[in-house]
Specification:
Elements: H1 3-12, E1 21-25, E2 28-32, H2 36-46, E3 56-59, H3 69-84, E4 89-91, H4 98-105, E5 112-115, E6 129-132, H5 135-144, E7 146-150, E8 153-160, H6 168-179, E9 187-192, H7 194-198, H8 201-209, E10 218-220, H9 225-233, H10 239-247, E11 261-266, E12 273-275, E13 283-285, H11 286-289, E14 296-299, H12 301-304, H13 307-317, E15 327-330, H14 335-343, H15 346-353, E16 356-357, E17 378-381, E18 397-400, H16 403-412
Parallel strand pairs: 2-3, 2-5, 3-4, 5-6, 8-9, 8-11, 9-10, 14-15, 14-17, 15-16, 17-18
Antiparallel strand pairs: 1-7, 12-13
Helix pairs in contact: 2-5, 6-8, 13-15, 13-16
The structure holds 3-isopropylmalic acid and iron/sulfur cluster.
The site of iron/sulfur cluster (SF4) has 12 residues, from helix 12.
Amino acid sequence: MTLIEEILSKKVGYEVCAGDSIEVKVDLAMTHDGTTPLTYKALKEMGDGVWDNEKIVIAFDHNVPANTVKAAEMQKLVLEFVKRFNIKHFHKGGEGICHQILAENYVLPNMFVAGGDSHTCTHGAFGAFATGFGATDMAYIYATGEAWIKVPKTIRVDIVGKNENISAKDIVLRVCKEIGRRGATYMAIEYGGEVVKRMNMDGRLTLCNMAIEMGGKTGVIEADEITYNYLKNERGLSDEKIAELKKERITVNKDEANYYREIEIDITDMEEQVAVPHHPDNVKPVSEVEGTEINQVFIGSCTNGRLSDLREAAKYLKGGKVHKDVKLIVIPASKKVFLQALREGLIETFIKAGAMICTPGCGPCLGAHQGVLAEGEVCLSTTNRNFRGRMGHINSYIYLASPKVAAISAVKGYITNKLD
Ligand SMILES: CC(C)[C@H](C(=O)O)[C@@H](O)C(=O)O
Ligand code: SF4
């Protein structure tokens, strides 16, 4: 069985395989300021009340603080929802991107996580089944605590080799190139191999985050010591709870699993990767786009706004200056990341280099809030999507790269992986 088949079999209590339609009890559900209003509307039409006010997480992240009357009105409506149903886990803004909040507080291995956001696939990094649903489906989930899904097929991706220059973002961009924008439609992307085994949770979250960019239902990685250590050290889970989780640990036997496709990527001689406009699968080695002039750099998002990302970016900005023609925006993915980055002096490094620091949230990622691009402007971003017009003007251009390439390019004024 694939990892996803194992997880879902355990959830429903009998053996399932790809293609089966199953009903599942949801362990954790989430919507944000962008998707709760529609979910609430649909919920009202279905009846009244939620199945469990302790299993629902609502986070304001897409437009925080509200920048338009419309955004403010939407948040007002969500507040009504939160009060009416006494939602216990409400994050009112500034606390982080919904996915980072989920990772830092709620997701556990083997869970079924349903989110009203396409990047809910991020949480497969915990060895959970996590996927995005539309607003009406989310309303049904909020009302009943149940979801209906077809068990996805799986593409297995093994990452091997050794290369200090290569980050999780380079790897996932390379995978996007390999699989393509539709190559994993309704499938799970199961990551493994020696590189993933060594990778920290920040990197694993980056890998799983972009499954949707290949049409994937979710990304997934087996829970292991790195997962349990994160849950103990970062999340403060007790030894008893960790022992309990370990007892329920699900592992995959690669040789016995039935995969739709298997891919191995050796990073040993790989260059840093860049996705060029207008799709995340238009990926090239950095040398092929080196010299492309940029107007803005954004370091942040649910893909690359975590502590490891900020540490990496700060390495190249320390003591340096952002190029005079470039605006650099840095947004920590959560309040927790922000505070730790402050303690470590990373924020000071960014500010001294000339960056703008904004409130934890989605920021410029989807062009609805800060850092909107003008006609013809070029942004190098650590986010996951570079669709035409996503960050502003329809004729603006987004390149996607790692925090390292973003930071170096911010200093140089053009896309590059070389500081000197
Ligand atoms: C606004 C929201 C529905 C959307 C998503 O689902 O992904 C957003 O987060 C995005 O990244 O485009
Ligand atoms: S950071 Fe970007 S990709 Fe992630 S949830 Fe927010 S808008 Fe979507």
